[in-house]
Amino acid sequence: MNSIRFGTDGWRAVIGEEFTAPNVRKVALAFARYLARSERPDAGVLVGYDNRFGSERFARAAAESLASASIPVCLARTACPTPALSLLVRQRRAAGGLMITASHNPARWNGVKFKASYGSSASPAIVAAIERELDLVCSEAAPTLPPREGLIQPLDVRTPYLDTLEKLVDWDRLRASGLRFLFDPMHGSAMGLLPELLGRNGVNCEEIRGWRDPLFGGRNPEPIEGPNVESARHAMRTGRFDAAFLADGDGDRVGAMDPGGRFINAHQCFAILLWHLAGTRDLPGDVAKTFSVTKLVDKIAEKFGRRLFETPIGFKYICELMLERDLLMGGEESGGIGFRFHLPERDASVSSLLLAEVMAWHGKRLGQFVAMLEKEFGAHRYARVDLELKPGQKEKAIELFRSDAVEAVFQRPIVAREDMDGIKVYPEGAGWVMVRASGTEPMLRVYAETASDETTRQIIEIAVRAVRAL
Predict the structure, then answer these.
(1) pTM above 0.90, yes or no
(2) Domains, the chain, ordered by start
């Protein structure tokens, strides 16, 4: 029986429990079977991995499984960010990519992300096809075959990635600005990249937590407000830097910080970049966002005459739109932002470079941009809480938010309700609040956005109490 289940972006599981070398081989073989039926398997597969425990060994196991199916494989020499692998898949016109990573998940997790030939997350249709092949692989109990000799070759991911990123921003403005940056890769596989790229172009950038630690210093490698970013906050309070950029464990999600330690969340980063690219640079294209992203993006898109598309949660849906439509950029609540002029893929390094360019272009700090946008479009204060619940509670929470009983919870009429992905309700005079079951972890996420920090905190607390009481 197949117990491997895919989430919003591939498969993730606890190392040593479901995430084992035999299971990784099965998943890789299912990917190989999909490629044999639907793609150009002779174009080969690129395999990369992050800094998690055993990732290089799991990557080797995946590469061997692919090679046993007679598919040529290029295996990364060192750990690399997910978007770097995606970029090479497209540049080398490979059949696909397979990345060993659990992204921002806790250290005990690892996973597999699939990358399609266009250089981004495999579409829902591709993932469904791989799942069907996986069911067959597990039911057939096929013997493990040895890899064919000569089909696994080493791959330098870092050099072509940096060379490509170097062409994306205005280095003259950045050098002239004299800005000083801090980069925190959170012990993840983006370590060293931004300081090298900025440094060789004459821009000051220092790095913290830039060494491999499979335990991630005891924190989740996710750039969100809270304990995860305290190392960057401590460094920013020294007054030595104008901004800090943070990347998650596999380098595709971004966070930022102002001097003094004020965190600039993913919604604010998205809004600043949209304002700059659609406004200052007047680049063409529309905008896409996932269901849990701030309404501030809607207002900026409207100001600059850009059509806004909303998708379910998961960058694969953004990617589909970027491939189908003329989109300037697309992003998600967790910090993943993609740009048409780069890849239909989220990339923390590119987002960081563009945020640095915004600062150099306008001579403002990130917090000043946030204040400027709030003055024009109103305050948008967002929060999210992740709840680990007892069996059955997630389902009861979803049902509660679907029902009219939720009005009694917030003691306000519900003026609107949306159910694109999870349930979002709009209590009268209090923005919106949403519940959604995680696609990769055993938890319920509670989101809210209102016009003040205090109201957002109150709305979140009311929702959490109601869910825990179920």
Answers:
(1) yes
(2) 11-159 (3.40.120.10), 162-264 (3.40.120.10), 269-377 (3.40.120.10), 381-468 (3.30.310.50)
